[in-house]
Amino acid sequence: MFLGIDLGTSGARLLLVDGAQRVIGAAEGACEVAHPHPGWSEQAPQDWVAAIRAALAQLKAAHPAEIAALQGIGFSGQMHGAVLLDAAGEVLRPCILWNDTRSHLEAAALDAMPVMREASANVVFPGFTAPKLAWLGTHEPEVFDRVATVLLPKDYLLFWMTGRRVTDMSDAAGTSWLDVAARRWSLTALEASGMRPGQMPDLVEGSEVVGTLRPDLAADLGLPAGVQVVAGGADNAVSACGVGALKAGQGFVSLGTSGVLLAARDDFGADPGSAVHSFCHAVPGRWYQMGVILAATDSLNWLSRITGRSPADLLGGLGALEAPGRVRFAPYLSGERTPHNDSAVRGGFAGLDIAHGPQDLARAVIEGVSFALRDCQQALMATGTALDQCLAIGGGTRSRYWVELLASVLNQPLDLPAKGEFGAALGAARLAICGVTGADPDTVMTRPGIGETVMPRPDLIPAYDDAYAAWRELYPSLRVLK
């Protein structure tokens, strides 16, 4: 038996599978996010531990015999968060999360140093880890001076389980401190940002065994002795493992809270100026690139809150896909990453008429999110990255209208997986299987069965091309309103 643990912003999801990847059971534990000041987003690492304990108790109660046969645990984790440990391994302050924007000035200052992009092959985004530590050095120097190790969120769980301070290549790639091409810490980037190599955790590959579950913790959790803990990786990389996107040409588009267009690569490639993320994959010798927008279904959820109508209700009356509407929406509710790297820009509607109602706005919202993902597609293509096979995943794919719209905007066939497990928790379990058994990731991390392939609408592609060109004029207009 193998356990995959996916640590997200809202909590932890645990998936128990057997060696043939048959799902035995799943459970979840919730976490709260604190926002003590505007733009701040924090969590207490102990809350992650509590969430995992709660979910594990559910699995043990439902599947005691299978839990008793557990051999390995793997992880997926939210990226970029800064967990700060002192020399004794105590947490110094709440974790500063990926969606925290307090360090936007520090990010801009680091990004202005040519050495940072040269070393890490990526733009220094405000959500990355390095600017968080730069902010800490200025605003909480007494904490900064005590930092012995900086861990990513899932790496704190590895530390809790094994006592080792490690991170994997895919998570380290989102710190701005990793030489992504060489898969090692960049001494140049560390020095430029005021950090020391000794404050970095040891680097391992995502399918590597970190250690054995601490005997006292195994007894406390009611788990068998000798369970091996595998490093796992960053959430998007592990999601790619879950959907079998390991080779060049394979990838996915995710309509989740944020939006992601990810393409696997067999070699390293980067174009930092495009604001495309170029990161190490969670398996050895592989990389991936992705464009990220900060508010995908989050934009629709925002409209739902202010109209008092559910997302399903807002989209349910749209009927068959037709040419784009006259209302335009820029989904920059929390700023934007790809391609703008602009934490200060905010969203907006254009073309509103007194006759427009909630469903017109809903249509504009999902069109705007789809156009933003086309921005990501254009940025990926500019780096020479192509998608031959593209899965559509995430909560937004429950809307057939939205999937057909997105396929037409991207002019890209989109595969909808058949029902079943294929997300980050499965990817984490797959990494555990590879780490414990030594199996080849290419044989373990296969694509899910495809329930349907949604094709672009040839009759609507020209209209959406024109609408996209007009939509791109929104960003320059909104940018001057900052």
TrEMBL record:
InterPro entries referenced in this protein's UniProt entry, alphabetically: ATPase_NBD, Carb_kinase_FGGY, Carb_kinase_FGGY_CS, FGGY_C, FGGY_Carb_Kinase, FGGY_N, Xylulokinase
EC number: 2.7.1.17
GO biological process, one term: xylulose catabolic process
Active site: 235
Domain of life: Bacteria
Domain Carbohydrate kinase FGGY N-terminal: 1-242
Binding site for substrate: 79-80
Keyword tags: ATP-binding, Carbohydrate metabolism, Kinase, Nucleotide-binding, Transferase, Xylose metabolism
Reaction equation(s) it catalyzes: D-xylulose + ATP = D-xylulose 5-phosphate + ADP + H(+)
Residue ranges of domain Carbohydrate kinase FGGY C-terminal in the record: 252-433
GO molecular-function terms, A-Z: ATP binding; D-xylulokinase activity
Pfam families assigned: FGGY_C (PF02782), FGGY_N (PF00370)
Site positions (Important for activity): 6
Function field: Catalyzes the phosphorylation of D-xylulose to D-xylulose 5-phosphate.
Xref: HAMAP family: XylB
Family that this chain belongs to: Belongs to the FGGY kinase family.
Name by which UniProt lists this protein: Xylulose kinase
Organism the protein comes from: Mangrovicoccus algicola
Gene: xylB
